[in-house]
Every structure is written in C-alpha cells, then in structure tokens.
Design a protein that fits this description.
single chain, 231 residues, alpha/beta, Rossmann fold, five-stranded parallel beta sheet, two-stranded antiparallel ribbon, 7 strands, 52% helix, globular, binds BIS(adenosine)-5'-pentaphosphate
Length: 231
Amino acid sequence: IGQEPLKVMISGAPASGKGTQCELIVQKFGLVHVSTGDLLRAEVAAGTEIGNKAKEFMNAGRLVPDEIVTAMVTTRLSREDAKQKGWLLDGYPRSLRQAESLEKLGIRPDVYIILNYNHFDCLGCISRADVDQKCIGRRLDPVTGKIYHTKNFPPETEEIKARLVTRPDDTEEKVKSRLAIYKQNAEAVSSVYSNITTEIDGNRPKEVVSNEVDSFLSQLQQDKVKGPKAE
Ligand code: AP5
C-alpha cells in the first residue's frame, strides 16, 4: 500500500531497439506501455482526424507537431491504469519543448534509459548503415503488434510471415531524415534528465540487452519499495 509504481522513459535513435525492449519490460514489470509511434500508427490505421494530420509527417520521417503528440501522451498517462501500474514512455519526449511540457505538468520518470548503438556511441557517430540495416529489415505483425526482423528475428511460422507488414517510414531516405532529427534533438532532451539517466548498449543480442535492463529496473523497484520511510 502506498508504494509508487515505476515510471520509466526509454529513448534512443531510430531502430535502436526501444520497441523490442519495451515488449520484454512490459511482460516482466507490468507497466503500461505508452509508445507515441504506436499510438500514432493506430490513429492513422483508424483514419481519425489526428491520424490524417499525423500521417503526412510520419510518412516523411518528420516529427508530428508537438500539440498533437503532447495531448495524446498526457491523456494516456492520466488514465487510472497508468497511475496504478506505472508507465513506460517510449518515443516521447523527442524535443526540448516536449520535455518541458512534461516538466510543467510535474510528470517525471524515475529513470531515463538511453539505448545506445554501442559503448562508444556519440551522437555524431551512430552509423547510418546500422540504422538502415535494422529499419529496412524490420517487419511488424499487425495481429500481435510484435516486431520482427528479416535476418535478426524471423517470424516463427509461415502463417505469421505471410501477414507481416513494413512501415512506410522504413525506407532509406526517410530513415536518413529520422536519424538527423534524432541527432538534432537528443542532447537537449537528455539534458533535462541528466541526473536520472542510464545508458545501455543496445547493440548486443536482445536477451543480453534485456537482462541488463531487467536487473537495472529490478534494483530500482527494490529501492522504491524501501523508500525513504524505511531509512
Ligand atoms: P517511432 O515508432 O517511435 O519510431 P523510432 O523512434 O524511429 O523508433 P523505431 O520504432 O524505428 O525503433 P525502435 O527503437 O523501437 O526499434 P525496434 O525495437 O523496432 O516513431 C515513428 C514516427 O512517429 C516518428 O518518425 C514521428 O513521425 C512520429 N512520432 C513518434 N513520437 C513522436 C513524438 N514524440 N513527437 C513527434 N512525432 C513523433 O527495432 C528495430 C529493428 O531491429 C527490428 O526489426 C528489431 O527486430 C531489430 N532489433 C531490435 N533489437 C535488436 C538487437 N538487440 N539485435 C539485433 N536486432 C535487433
């Protein structure tokens, strides 16, 4: 009783493996996964007004206007399940303005995880080739929402394989734009969370990455349970 649930933010360049790790975090910690990319893709698929507005930006590999995304995120985070179970925010904030919107509302995570491409990552040296390889091979299962990769994680059955789809923004040209926008914004966004940042090398087998994420979050959860009261 009275124990605050975990609040986690995960960030990283396009195709750094955020969605893949989020699947595993949700399974283990039961947090509510709030992915702005997924929420926007669902709006597009449903043909809503938001979806129609967002579509042109997404398909061009550009950011959707802040007002649209911020309203979507804050509405979702204020729902009872997110308050009760805790949340995992994936793909937001992506600009300083978005981070400031959350700060103004007093919405702050316990940890800001940056999934890096490798140990020696710097914003200027994320390789285009790596990002291209991961994006261009990515496939989504529209039925389960699961993320596959033609080489790294092929689907389990022929039936799944037949229904997989490609994201319209996973072409070389659009990936280039997404990566450039990420590089422009990453430093400013992470500066807001510098005292609660943990960097994890995402360029290793996904089980290795998820073991590291898992032990980090387990520790964090234990620390929260102990809380200041126990001291
Ligand atoms: P979003 O969906 O958030 O796209 P993204 O940030 O570019 O991230 P991705 O989904 O491409 O990659 P990921 O890191 O989740 O990687 P994944 O796990 O799939 O956003 C899409 C668009 O929506 C934006 O461009 C923008 O238009 C709009 N939008 C979203 N948020 C917004 C915001 N806040 N403001 C404004 N606009 C916004 O993995 C990639 C591939 O690699 C997969 O095939 C996977 O199987 C494979 N893989 C994963 N892990 C590994 C591993 N360890 N080893 C080998 N392969 C791996």
